[in-house]
Design goal:
The protein is built from six helices and no strands. The chain is mainly α and about 170 residues long. Keywords: Membrane, Transmembrane, Transmembrane helix.
């Protein structure tokens, strides 16, 4: 497994964890389940740890792909900036979740507001997660780039030759 492959393995986790955490947090809020809220906090903390792993493997992934055909330095730079912003927000969500988890176990009075505070930051992190994921995908997936042009005219003509049916 090379650095690029390792980055691909871990970089999806920081994007997936907030979704799962938000679902658990909503269940905890509406069902008034402290256990569900605590599990959500743990998921958010794991998301922050996964962000550390994704950031740590990013430089090695860059070195592995920067000289490949079709890979532009500008795409890598855009992704790097989006990933740094998302990772920073993931660390904030993870830190708030750590405080919320501790407050929940100790039954501090401010623990009542923590699910909402963590939830707001977690939901806002999803916007930046999308940006980091999309800009990362654009590095190698030309079909999702904004400037991607598809020429399906020739392909559609070839595909439609055998599609004529007599009714």
């Amino acid at each position: 497994m090379n650095n690029s492959h390792l980055h691909l393995v871990v970089n999806h986790l920081p994007i997936i964890f907030p979704f799962v955490g938000i679902v658990l947090l909503l269940i905890g809020i509406f069902a008034k389940s402290e256990v569900s809220k605590r599990n959500a906090y743990i998921i958010f903390i794991l998301g922050a740890v996964a962000s550390i792993a994704a950031m740590a493997t990013g430089e090695g992934a860059e070195e592995g792909v920067e000289h490949l055909p079709g890979v532009a330095e500008s795409l890598i730079k855009t992704h790097e900036e989006a990933a740094e912003l998302f990772a920073g927000l993931s660390y904030v969500v993870g830190g708030l979740s750590l405080v919320a988890l501790f407050a929940s176990f100790r039954s501090f009075t401010f623990s009542k507001i923590m699910p909402f505070l963590v939830g707001i930051f977690a939901v806002s992190s999803l916007f930046f997660a999308q940006k980091a994921g999309t800009t990362g995908g654009e590095i190698r997936h030309t079909e999702i780039r904004n400037d991607a042009q598809t020429d399906n005219v020739g392909n559609n003509a070839a595909e439609n030759v055998g599609d004529e049916h007599d009714d």
